[in-house]
Design goal:
- By secondary structure, this protein is an all-beta fold.
- Helix content is 0%, strand content 39%.
- It contains no helices and 9 strands.
- Strands 2, 4, 5, 6 and 8 form a 5-stranded antiparallel sheet that branches. It has a 4-stranded antiparallel sheet with strand order 1-9-3-7, with no helix packed on it.
- The chain is globular.
Length: 118
């Protein structure tokens, strides 16, 4: 399986990343940075890159990834369930939740692995 890579950044003092265009692929894994201000990682999706929605499961619960900094100075790699990014053209990652966003203490780069659509 061929994987493509992109990096998104959450600026220092902010909670939202820049935009990832998923036109040609589906997210399969997120590598979090070795240092991370304590917060869950949640997702926003858009079809237009203008109007953004929080991504929820079928029960209406915000999709959330337990993200932590690594004590050994390495990145954390988290698998993303396939259905989380079906039908999403643009993606942003959020530190914290929609109701409690958590600004990061420094710039955080997250690497995204995605595979081309078959």
């Amino acid at each position: 399986m061929q994987l493509n890579w992109k990096t998104v950044t959450i600026p220092s003092g902010a909670s939202l990343s820049d935009v990832l265009d998923l036109q040609y692929g589906q997210v399969v894994r997120i590598w979090g940075p070795p240092l991370w201000t304590a917060a869950a990682l949640t997702l926003q999706g858009s079809l237009t890159n203008t109007d953004w929605d929080d991504l929820l499961d079928q029960a209406g619960t915000e999709l959330s990834i337990a993200m932590t900094g690594a004590t050994n100075g390495l990145e954390r790699a988290v698998t993303v369930p396939r259905e989380w990014t079906f039908g999403v053209r643009f993606l942003r990652l959020r530190s914290g939740t929609s109701s409690v966003p958590v600004p990061q203490a420094a710039e955080r780069n997250l690497r995204i692995a995605f595979r081309p659509f078959a």
